[in-house]
């Protein structure tokens, strides 16, 4: 256990050693009194040991008979781990079972490792988290200027990041390591542990933000996933769903906010086409069921007993990326945040690419934004799972401004035509929802692009991003990058901004 603690949270090494000696932190020989705000036990990897105990960080009210209600501080013995929902027993201090059911794992914190000696000192450690989640937590009205957290970046090349609330924004500082494995943010000083780093900047100013204040208060998450409840029952009756306000409408479908069994929020897409081939639709849904990724919208269920058909997915509260970018929240995003949104889309599309799935209508209107500014690609479910290099479509309802030349002229769709569309999506992002090819008619767009025209670099667009856009718009599909390469390049380009943006 000692070795595990040292590997998982280096900030606790000193305190762990003190705890083993049963010596209070302030009385350790040769050490001054530790002045530190309350801190949170660092999340540990799921334990393989039988009998692992977890504690609830927040209360949760069950929405279904298979879920388990609990209060803050309740204890659990986890029975099985499957995605975001775990099956667990709620127990009392004597180990007596009080109930069994599904619980959201992000409401729990492992308590096996000496909470008494360790938990007080790491309230600021938030585990793996992206910059958007950090911003969402820190910008809560509950946090004052100087509120901070340390997180492990979700980008493999970054490592630890210190995120600090500063006035109306959040600044992110990459925590670097020198050759002797010491931590530092500025050229000096260097620290043997993250705890020492936090203590130093709690007493001395950090460039751009001043002294660190109180640890960030963690925002209570909203559980939305239904897969632990519906299991393999993908086909559900319409009577179990209620429609609320309309969220959007397109040529093929209307989207509504809805509820399942009156108490679980979902998004319901109602397919307008009454002539849709039932067998073909069901076959596509069967394909869609296996596509699971953090940057793809999750399918929950379908209703196909009678038209119009329903497609039921998770609800993304901030709406489409296009609406978001044009709204007040989107207008306040900085360049780094905008590029990160593009990288999230590339990540989801890379997964589709790996699974031989093409989208055919990738655009900001078909990307949804949720809490923590997470972006998820939507509307890929009606695309084709392909084994050939491309799929030939007779469909003339093509989104010209987003489509690759070969898709328009010959109906050839592939992952490479999706890459072309991604370049246009980047244009939408960096222009805060601007309309591609402004002033051009649809016919003019096709003719101009065919003759070699490409949109000029938008105002304030970073050079590296415009270069990526131009590569996406290569005339020959084979010369366009893959989504995996796009995701890796965008992550690499954004990394330098982690230091103090």
List keywords for this structure.
20% strand; SH2 domain; 4 domains; Phosphorylase Kinase, domain 1; SHC Adaptor Protein; cytoplasm; SH3 type barrels; 501 residues; alpha+beta; five-stranded antiparallel β-sheet; transferase
CATH architecture of the largest domain: Orthogonal Bundle
Mean pLDDT: 79
CATH class of the largest domain: Mainly Alpha
Structural class: alpha+beta
Remind me, CATH topology of the largest domain? Transferase(Phosphotransferase), domain 1
Secondary structure layout:
Elements: H1 2-8, H2 13-21, E1 53-56, E2 75-82, E3 85-91, E4 97-104, E5 108-110, H3 115-118, E6 125-128, H4 131-138, E7 148-152, E8 160-166, E9 169-174, E10 176-177, E11 183-184, H5 194-203, H6 227-230, E12 241-249, E13 253-260, E14 264-271, H7 278-289, E15 299-303, E16 310-313, H8 321-326, H9 328-331, H10 335-354, E17 367-369, E18 375-377, E19 391-392, H11 405-410, E20 412-413, H12 415-430, H13 442-450, H14 463-472, H15 483-494
Helix pairs in contact: 10-12, 10-15, 12-14
Characterization of this structure:
Keywords: ATP-binding, Cell projection, Cytoplasm, Kinase, Lipoprotein, Myristate, Nucleotide-binding, Phosphoprotein, SH2 domain, SH3 domain, Transferase, Tyrosine-protein kinase. It is found in: Cell projection, Ruffle; Cytoplasm. This protein has 501 residues and is α+β, with helices and mostly antiparallel strands. The protein folds into four domains: 1-44 and 113-220, SH2 domain (SHC Adaptor Protein, 2-Layer Sandwich); 52-105, Roll (SH3 type barrels); 227-313, 2-Layer Sandwich (Phosphorylase Kinase, domain 1), CATH 3.30.200.20; 321-498, Transferase(Phosphotransferase) domain 1 (Transferase(Phosphotransferase), domain 1), CATH 1.10.510. It is 27% helix and 20% strand. The chain has helices at residues 2-8, 13-21, 115-118, 131-138, 194-203, 227-230, 278-289, 321-326, 328-331, 335-354, 405-410, 415-430, 442-450, 463-472, 483-494; strands at 53-56, 75-82, 85-91, 97-104, 108-110, 125-128, 148-152, 160-166, 169-174, 176-177, 183-184, 241-249, 253-260, 264-271, 299-303, 310-313, 367-369, 375-377, 391-392, 412-413. A five-stranded antiparallel β-sheet has the order 4-3-2-1-5, with no helix packed on it. Strands 12-13-14-16-15 form a five-stranded antiparallel β-sheet, with helices on one face. Strand 13 (253-260) and strand 14 form a beta hairpin. The longest helix has 20 residues, at 335-354. It is globular, with a radius of gyration of 25 Å.
